Structures are given as C-alpha cells and as structure tokens.
Amino acid sequence: MASTDQDALPAELSVTGIGKTYAEPVLADVSLALHAGEALALTGENGAGKSTLSKIIGGLVDPTTGSMQLAGEPYAPASRTEAEALGIRMVMQELNLLPTLSVAENLFLNRLPRAGKLGFGWIDRRKLREDAREAMAQVGLEAIDPDTLVGELGIGHQQMVEIARNLIGDCRVLILDEPTAMLTAREVDLLFEQIDRLKARGVALVYISHRLEELARVAERVAVLRDGRLVRVDAMANLTSDQIVTLMVGRELGERIDLGARNIGATLLKVDGMTRAPVVRDVSFEVKAGEIFGVSGLIGAGRTELMRLIYGADQKDAGTVSLAATPGAAPTPVPIGTPSDAVRHGIALITEDRKGEGLLLPQPIAANVSLGNLRSVAKHGIVDARRENALAKRQIDAMRIRTSGPAQPVGELSGGNQQKVVIGRWLARDCKVLLFDEPTRGIDVGAKFDIYGLMGALAREGRALVVVSSDLRELMLICDRIGVMSAGRMTGVFRRDEWTQDALLAAAFAGYRNREALLHPHEAHEGETQS
C-alpha cells in the first residue's frame, strides 16, 4: 500500500483495524488517516464497504472490530446526533429530509430560532428565513423560497438542501456519499466551489463517488476498497482512472462494449403525439425489436415524465402507445391508463427512484423479486416460498447481486445491488418492452458493464429497450439510436453512424433557445444581430 506525504501529518480522524460483520463480513481490517484541509476520495464497487465505513464514522453503525480517534482522542459515537455534535457530518445517498416541512425548517430543525426570552416562545420566522437564505446561498439555492415544502422540490434540489443542512455550524469532517448523482452541471460546479472553501477552512472531507473524473477534481488522495478490504491508498496524481478501475474490480475494463450480434427487426413500440403540458409536448418515436433506443436531454427536459406517460403512471393529455402483437406485425394502439395496463401489455419500467418507487426496503430480496411475478410463484393464490426463493436465486446469480441470500432485506444491500434487484424483477418477467430510467445511477463501473451486458442479452432476445440517462457517454456506448428531449419536446433522433457529442448537446439546448425566441423575440433578434 503506497504512502503519501500526508501520512506524516497529524490526523484529524483516524480509523484502525475497522471491521464489520452482518450475516457475513462486509469490512475487514480497514485503517485510514484523514487530515484537516484535504479531501480523501473513497471508491470501490457497490458492496465494497464504502457506505458501511462511512456510517461507522458517522455514528450510524457500530464497528465489529477496530477503533477510531478524532484529533488524537478516542472517538466512538453512539449515534449520528453524537457524531454531529463533535463536528462529523454526513450527506448520505438516502436523503435525511422531512418532505412535509419547509426548506428553512429542514435546515434548522434542531436549532429553530425562538422569539421569546431564554429560548422559549414562538419560532422567530423572520430570523429563520434569513438564516435559511444565508445557508441556501452557499449551495446556489438563492432562487428558492425558504418556505417551500421540501416535498415540492425536485430530487436534485433536495440533495442541495441536504448538503446545505450539513454545512451549518461547526463542521470538522464532512462525508459526501455520491453527492452529485442527482445534480445538474451548474449545481455540481457550485458544490465543488464549496468543497474548495471547506478545505481552505481546514475541514477534512471524505468524497465517495463512482465518477472518477470528479475524484481527480476534488481529492488529494484516493482510497480503494474491494470486497471489504483496503487495496490501495495513494496520492490521486499517482493513479490514472484506468488504474483505479482495475483496483476496484480486480480486472481491466475497456471503454468499448460488445453487445453481441443482434438482428434488429420490425417496429415493436410506437409512441405518437404523447403530451402532458407543459412537461411533455407532442413526442413521437418508435423502437424496433432488438434495438436499444436512448433518450438524452438536460435535467427537466421531460425524459422521466415521458417514460411515466408511456407506462401509465401519469395521465396524458393526448397521445397513443402502439405495440406489435406478434413479431413483424404492424403496431396497433393499446389502452394504457395505469401501470397495471402497461404490465399486462408487456411493458416494464425500471424507475430512477429505486428506493421510493422501486423497492420495499424492509422486505427480503425474494419478496421484492416476486412482486412482478406473483403468478409464477403462487399456488392456489398463496405464495410458495420454495418457488419464490428459487426465482430469487436465479436472479441473484444472473445479476451478480452481492448478498447472503434471498432472505436478506433489500435495505441492507448497497445502492448498486438494490438497483440490480429492481432490474432482476422485470428480467424474470416476459416483458417485450423495457423502459430504463437512469438504470446505472449510483452504480460502480464494474456493475455498469454487467448491466450493459444484460441489456445486450435482452436486445438479442428481440425485446425493445428504451434507456434514459444523464450520462451522454453511456448512451453513445450502448445505444443504436438516441432521441434528444429539450423543453418537453423531442428535438432530434440520431443514428449511431451520424451522431456526435456536439450534435447531441446542440439538440438538448435547441428547445430552450426556441422557447426563449418565442417569449422574447426582440431580444433574440438583437442577440443574433450582435453576434
């Protein structure tokens, strides 16, 4: 294990011989030092132990073995509250916000300003709003009213509120677990600026991410976990992205992927004039049997809303979904008013919000997999545990899910393995159209390539795949065609042999430029003249 110049400095936080065992060991003999004013990148495949180690440091989980020190003193927090009181803050993938309270109330929930003497009396709403605006400005949320209910915000803005909440007060160590997974490019830039300010103040950071280009931007050192063990700690400058990936997965991964020989057939799915104003407007496209069709666009372009309309999760204003009843037949309209209708016609949706919409976290893997396949595991209307477990085992093996077995609660799995459970549920059912909404968000690079391989296998079976992703490189890697959404409309469809990254990005902005021209024609004309 390589050493760095930082190792000679006094540690703000150190962990020694940390291990954790549930049904089986998930961490073993991890020792690390974290220094004031530095960011340590913590990376590894899903299930490698990153989140478990973070939760031990943050007081959410007790270690089975090992010890910790904070500024040279023994550190063993009994709870997250105790850790936060000592200046250890953690922004987790699972947001710790109350949707029925306002942004301001969430930010200062445990320290609400009081109007009365000695801290008693009514809440001082004026001061609460002022304090909230100051905290929100740090992460670029000035445009949001502090009185807005958190539940009314998009998931990206909720993530920024969670980050702002953890920057309030004395922060000595900040753990960021996949903080940019749901953020726009502008929000990511604001976060990085804030990280630079925190390091200048002497805050020590642990930055967990699968986006390796971010690690190089943020961190001075990198620690790589594999199968619960620390395999390398080194200066970030000493390792390339390819070397980090090899350390993470134990093998080399190329930048190209072979999805196998496919026979792309006749149109299987056809969407005509799909509309739900103002988020989706008159969108039409078709997908052939054996084809992977990507949907790109900026955050808020209407991509997720389009998938939900096709699936019947939201009510449309207009539009039809047509399916081919048999291979080669012309698609005919099918009535889809609810998700049950969609499933009955052979359409599945792998949602972007796996925790809120895709899984029953307290339930075992077996129950989650069988949710979409009850007929295959039930006997006389009663679930047959033997059949249910057999189905779950097949999907665990097929998806390479890291687990102790079908009985393990899904909530105990890593984020990537939870996503695999969601995908495995639908792969066990014979759906001919699969809608994937951000299928690899929060998933490590090794698991991503596993899922790409599964997509290739599904396409070879003659199914039609629609893949929504914020990662343009991902779509360019796996798709046959890419449709670009912009301001609720599909502004272009590109074949593999004709797309470029610049062309795809131009199409993503086209709808917003057109809308601005309609709203402010005089200004748009002046801008064109000046340019």
UniProtKB/TrEMBL annotation:
Quote the subcellular location field of this record: Cell membrane
Q: Does the keyword Ribonucleoprotein apply?
A: no
Q: Which UniProt keywords apply?
A: ATP-binding, Cell inner membrane, Cell membrane, Hydrolase, Membrane, Nucleotide-binding, Repeat, Sugar transport, Translocase, Transport
Sorted alphabetically, which SUPFAM superfamilies does this protein's record hold? P-loop containing nucleoside triphosphate hydrolases
Q: Where is the ABC transporter domain?
A: 8-252, 259-512
Does the keyword Translocase belong to this entry? yes
Q: What species is this protein from?
A: Paraburkholderia piptadeniae
The EC number(s) given in the record are 3.6.3.17
- Protein known as: Ribose/galactose/methyl galactoside import ATP-binding protein 1
Write one Gene Ontology MF term. ATP hydrolysis activity
Q: How does it sit in the membrane?
A: Peripheral membrane protein
Q: What GO terms fall under cellular component here? A: plasma membrane
State one Pfam family annotation: ABC_tran
Under the heading PANTHER family, the entry gives: CARBOHYDRATE TRANSPORT ATP-BINDING PROTEIN MG119-RELATED (PTHR43790), D-ALLOSE IMPORT ATP-BINDING PROTEIN ALSA-RELATED (PTHR43790:SF3)
Under the heading Gene3D superfamilies, the entry gives:
P-loop containing nucleotide triphosphate hydrolases
SMART domains (alphabetical): AAA
